[in-house]
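User: Sorry, folds how?
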Amino acid sequence: MSPDSVTPGSVRSAAELNEQIRTLWMRAGGTLSAQERVEYELLVVEWAAAIRGEVIEAA
């Protein structure tokens, strides 16, 4: 899954994605492997989309 394939209006909330990002970092012990880096990048892209969606809904 590439960052371009993340659809606007993420199904998961920004809070849920933030928790997954935190869990990933804790599980990795602060140093991400190549595979974990890919997972992290995808989560961050989805988190950013969720934040944008929440800001638009609030407006």
Summary: The CA atoms of residues 53 and 59 lie 10 Å apart.
